[in-house]
Predict the 3D structure of the following.
Amino acid sequence: MRAMYKGVIYVATGPDYRDLALQSARSLRQVEPGLPIDLFTDAPDAVPRGVFDAVHPIETPHRRSKLDCMGLTRFERTLYLDCDTLITAPLGDLFHLLDRFEMALAHDVRRASDLIREGFEQVTPYAFPQMNSGVVLYRRSERVLDFLRDWARRFAEAGVTRDQVILKDMLWQGDLAFYVLPPEFNLRRLTVLDAWEPEDAIPTILHSHRLMDHMCDGGVRLSGVEDLVEAERRALTEEWRRAGGHDTGAIGRFLRRKG
């Protein structure tokens, strides 16, 4: 298949993730109707027509099949999106970042936690946490394709469960020219929107595990942005309650620490 200039790819194995990929791709179609979208999946025949421009088979699926598929993109400039995303605004000139950088991705959240501080071999400063691998913009160059192949290989050899642990080491050790995306392009904490002022930013790519809640026992299927934001608010309240600071949240905890 002839390489195209730019496009978006999803990787989905199993019916639940294919359903989420369809939902995300449809939200992308509404704001970027002309942007090509591809899907890599283990059951191409199960994908309805009319949403994706191309559907590619995954021959040997596993829980991190995205590492095998990212380098197979047919686009010169690719935006990889996890399935638990919703796109709420046009991407604008996002792909132009690749005029200057080889890759772009956002910091992960929970940066004060050991989970996101973790590397496989490398210990890095606090200000260099893991990058979230659910939204990745990258060139289809030999350097980047080698990086992606090495990421997949090192992940398989390490025996870890989270690919971001390996990615953190590689970005710290290597010389890949990467850019840290502003949070609106990988918005993991939707509740921050309550604090944003009108000209702060344009929420563009929402990325929430709440979109997968229905895949767990008793979880509710979410599709609309309003329902998603309310679910995020409830989850935030519950998390602060468990942490013993539900009355004042992060600001109260910060002020108590300063005092």
User: Anything to note?
Assistant: The longest strand covers residues 4-12. Helices lie at 15-31, 66-69, 114-117, 142-158, 163-173, 225-242, 249-258. The domain at 4-185 is CATH 3.90.550.10 (Spore Coat Polysaccharide Biosynthesis Protein SpsA; Chain A). The chain has seven helices and nine strands.
